[in-house]
Amino acid sequence: MTRYAVKRKAKSPRLYRWKWTGTVGQTRLLHGEIIGHSKVAVTAELRKQNIDVRRVTKKNDLNSQGRIKPRDIMVFSRQLATMIQAGIPLLQAFQVVAESLKKPSMVALVHQLTNDVASGTSFSDALRCHPQHFDRLFINLVDAGEQSGTLDKMLEQNAVYKEKLESLKGRVKKALWYPTTVLLTGIAITLLLLIKVVPQFESMFQSFDAELPAVTQLTVDLSMLAQQLWLPLLGTATTVILLLRWLTRRSPALVYLLHRLLLRIPVIGNIIDKAAVARFSRTLATTYASGIPLVEGLATAAGSTGNKVYEKAALQTQKEVATGQQLHFSMRMTNRFPALAVQMVSIGEEAGALDTMLHRVASYYEEDVDNQVDALTSLMEPLIIVVLGILVGGIVVSMYLPIFNLGTVI
């Protein structure tokens, strides 16, 4: 299937958005936009609608505009589920969804799916031709929905799952990026003051021909050091970041090590830890409730954790379950999953309600992540204000201190 998908993708004609002008009945002038592979195909399609085409011009290429993000797939799943629930046939639902989408690359993807399904390919097989956009869970849910006649429910379930997962990712990103961004901004402002503002005061201090206060002298020395080293330090930092990105793409062991170190960072590591458990539980609950075998669901859940340490633990759990071990026992053997999660899974297995308990585990840890992110944000805001106040205020005070001393002498 992978070779087939690659081959088909290579031969797939490019889609363009065309502007057209035409008439109906020799009197009524119409104009609009349409998507197609070529001018000839667009003209033929308009003539089928009894439109006398006067002009067709290419507007833009849909295949190269905008990267498709998980949120785009979530919206597509939600809209398609709504169309099918309303009783609209699948091909017509594709067309309606494509017209409502604004991102050109997403419109092109939906048109490719439409063409595949119209040619006799099943919806799930059409999705398999685009593994870079549709994950294993989405494909499995659609496959199960086609076989059971519940495609709308499966699409709705996938949309709900995607929404919860994207919400959780957003909370984790906020926990990581908020303090980092503010801290980097503070460092940038401090360097700007040391490099651009302090030298102006320094030239004025030289005219005083007097010994500067210790704090002011320290600031001046730091300014001279920053002027000499800021460019080499910036180059070194950029090189390290680029090298690290290059290495992480080629070294799974390094990625695993970095993810393991992330889990050990105070507060933030705890947030990442619980977010990984929530993702694992939510994905496994969704696959299990959809009738997907537990072993296959564990493989899907492993890839959704967002952390290589938990991914390894989930794959180890999968191997244990494949040999006949119970899920909760296999999870406990990894020494990674929290005791509460293991106990709730054990209760779910005994009661025959594993999917329900997994959903509760996911909801519990998602709420815990939300609370910890809110607490971290509330804690960081005054702390960051204090740090920035000390850095910026310290520089300003140290620069004006000689002027105040001069005023007292006069």
From TrEMBL:
<protein>
    <submittedName>
        <fullName>Type II secretion system F family protein</fullName>
    </submittedName>
</protein>
<keyword id="KW-1133">Transmembrane helix</keyword>
<keyword id="KW-0813">Transport</keyword>
<dbReference type="Pfam" id="PF00482">
    <property type="entry name" value="T2SSF"/>
</dbReference>
<dbReference type="InterPro" id="IPR042094">
    <property type="entry name" value="T2SS_GspF_sf"/>
</dbReference>
<comment type="similarity">
    <text>Belongs to the GSP F family.</text>
</comment>
<dbReference type="InterPro" id="IPR001992">
    <property type="entry name" value="T2SS_GspF/T4SS_PilC_CS"/>
</dbReference>
<feature type="transmembrane region" description="Helical">
    <location>
        <begin position="229"/>
        <end position="247"/>
    </location>
</feature>
<dbReference type="InterPro" id="IPR018076">
    <property type="entry name" value="T2SS_GspF_dom"/>
</dbReference>
<keyword id="KW-0472">Membrane</keyword>
<keyword id="KW-1003">Cell membrane</keyword>
<feature type="domain" description="Type II secretion system protein GspF">
    <location>
        <begin position="280"/>
        <end position="402"/>
    </location>
</feature>
<feature type="transmembrane region" description="Helical">
    <location>
        <begin position="175"/>
        <end position="195"/>
    </location>
</feature>
<feature type="domain" description="Type II secretion system protein GspF">
    <location>
        <begin position="76"/>
        <end position="199"/>
    </location>
</feature>
<dbReference type="InterPro" id="IPR003004">
    <property type="entry name" value="GspF/PilC"/>
</dbReference>
<keyword id="KW-0812">Transmembrane</keyword>
<keyword id="KW-0997">Cell inner membrane</keyword>
<feature type="transmembrane region" description="Helical">
    <location>
        <begin position="383"/>
        <end position="403"/>
    </location>
</feature>
